[in-house]
């Protein structure tokens, strides 16, 4: 039993492991079976008498088995050759072995031929059935013989054809199901990737908007406190503030790296934007559709807290102009006046200007700008610049140096 199992395994995996090997083995087996049937006297099917010595049937049988070798790559040509050999075998009286060859070739043509060839094959099979009716009646004038001949033709041609088409449809349905499963799997992968990207983006926004903002506020307040003149005897407190500021700045840098990892498409996330980026801020507003003019005079060296507050006030003001006066005009002025840093953003051509009190959603940005300015000892004002309420103005003044006692 062990030897038989090994032989069976070798037959299935090695001999019949490829399409070419299966074609060869099927042709050999069909030829061997046909020769056995000829030797058994199963020939002369259409001659009306058994033909036990008709070994001439082996010639079309062997040639038909050779035609079976091309049934997969050239099914129509193989069937055409098999049909000619089958006709020659019928002329010799017919044999079951050649009938098996024809069955296999019709089945293979229905399974492997192109759609157009299959349609022609179906039409040819029905034409041959109809022709057998006509020829049978013309030759015999016997209804029973005619019906029997037509039935034989129908069975010989349409049975393997129907079988091959059924297997073909099952394969096509299996391929469609496999393709649909692949599409569903790809769609699920895309949705999972989108969900992961959305979650990572949400985490990045939370880190940037909430955590980074709070850490930045810690750094600002610490820097504001350090801007005070040193107090004798408070060296330890000042050193602690410096450590707090250094740790906050380091945390901001590390948090920026985390945000960039979470959002591969994120641009640089600056922990403390300065006024040297004012040109890029104005360029972004112009890209958003605003007509912006910038008047920025020379500025002295400013504390980081003042620069960041100034930048954020200008950024929020321009953002409000983009939001509430799209396509409008904005005039940005930055300079020094009376020993203070003066900021001004005037906007027009919009019912709300840069976020007036009559515009839905206005208020939080104004409050944020006011808190930034006043936390450093500055002033902030926003309102209509004319009685016609067509021009909105945002103005802020910040100290050039953080006053003593601010941010302590």
In a few lines, what is going on in this structure?
The protein has about 400 residues and is of the alpha+beta class. The protein is built from 11 helices and 5 strands.
Structural description of this entry:
By secondary structure, the protein is of the alpha+beta class. The protein folds into two domains: 2-180, no CATH class; 273-399, Heat Shock Protein 90, CATH 3.30.565. The protein has helices at residues 2-15, 19-39, 58-68, 75-91, 96-112, 115-140, 143-226, 235-262, 278-287, 304-324, 364-375, and strands at residues 291-296, 329-337, 340-348, 379-384, 391-399. The chain has a five-stranded mixed β-sheet with strand order 1-2-3-5-4, with helices on one face. A hairpin with a 2-residue loop joins strand 2 (329-337) and strand 3 (340-348). It is rod-shaped and about 130 Å long.
Topology:
Blueprint: H1 2-15, H2 19-39, H3 58-68, H4 75-91, H5 96-112, H6 115-140, H7 143-226, H8 235-262, H9 278-287, E1 291-296, H10 304-324, E2 329-337, E3 340-348, H11 364-375, E4 379-384, E5 391-399
Helix pairs in contact: 2-3, 2-5, 3-4, 3-5, 4-5, 5-7, 6-7, 7-8, 9-10, 10-11
Main beta-sheet annotation: 5 strands, mixed
Helix and strand sequence? HHHHHHHHHEHEEHEE
Helix content: 55-70%
Number of domains: 2
Put simply, the count of helices is 11
N-to-C CA distance:
94 Å
The average pLDDT score comes to 77
Rough outline: rod-shaped
Q: Got a strand count? A: 5
List its salient traits.
408 residues; alpha+beta; Heat Shock Protein 90; 2 domains; five-stranded mixed sheet; 11 helices; 64% helix; rod-shaped; disordered C terminus
């Amino acid at each position: 039993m062990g030897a038989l199992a090994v032989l069976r395994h070798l037959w299935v995996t090695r001999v019949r492991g490829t399409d070419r090997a299966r074609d060869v083995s099927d042709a050999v087996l069909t030829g061997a079976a046909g020769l056995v049937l000829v030797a058994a006297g199963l020939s002369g099917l259409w001659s009306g008498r058994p033909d036990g010595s008709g070994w001439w049937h082996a010639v079309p049988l062997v040639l038909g088995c050779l035609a079976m070798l091309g049934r997969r790559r050239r099914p129509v040509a193989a069937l055409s050759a098999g049909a000619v050999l089958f006709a020659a075998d019928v002329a010799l009286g017919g044999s079951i072995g050649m009938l098996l060859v024809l069955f296999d070739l019709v089945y293979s043509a229905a399974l492997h031929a192109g759609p157009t060839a299959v349609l022609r094959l179906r039409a040819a099979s029905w034409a041959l059935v109809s022709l057998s009716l006509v020829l049978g009646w013309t030759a015999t004038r016997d209804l029973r013989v005619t019906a029997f001949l037509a039935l034989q033709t129908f069975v010989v041609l349409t049975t393997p054809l129907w079988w091959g088409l059924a297997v073909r449809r099952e394969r096509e349905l299996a391929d469609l199901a496999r393709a649909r499963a692949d599409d569903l799997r790809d769609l699920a992968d895309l949705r999972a990737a989108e969900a992961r990207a959305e979650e990572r983006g949400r985490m990045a926004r939370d880190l940037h908007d909430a955590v980074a903002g709070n850490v930045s506020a810690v750094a600002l307040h610490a820097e504001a406190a350090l801007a005070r003149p040193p107090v004798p005897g408070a060296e330890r407190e000042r050193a602690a503030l410096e450590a707090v500021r250094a740790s906050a700045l380091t945390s901001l840098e590390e948090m920026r790296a985390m945000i960039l990892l979470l959002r591969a498409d994120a641009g640089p996330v600056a922990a403390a934007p300065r006024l040297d980026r004012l040109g890029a801020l104005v360029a972004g507003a112009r890209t958003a559709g605003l007509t912006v003019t910038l008047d920025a005079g020379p500025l002295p060296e400013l504390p980081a807290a003042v620069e960041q507050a100034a930048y954020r006030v200008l950024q929020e003001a321009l953002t409000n102009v983009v939001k509430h006066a799209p396509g409008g005009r904005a005039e940005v002025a930055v300079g020094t006046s009376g020993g203070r840093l003066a900021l001004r953003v005037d906007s027009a051509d919009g019912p709300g200007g840069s976020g007036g009190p009559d515009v839905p959603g206005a208020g939080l940005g104004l409050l944020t700008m006011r808190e930034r300015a006043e936390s450093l000892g500055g002033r902030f004002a926003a309102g209509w610049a004319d009685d016609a309420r067509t021009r909105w103005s945002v103005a802020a003044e910040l100290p050039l140096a953080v006053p003593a006692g601010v941010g302590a």
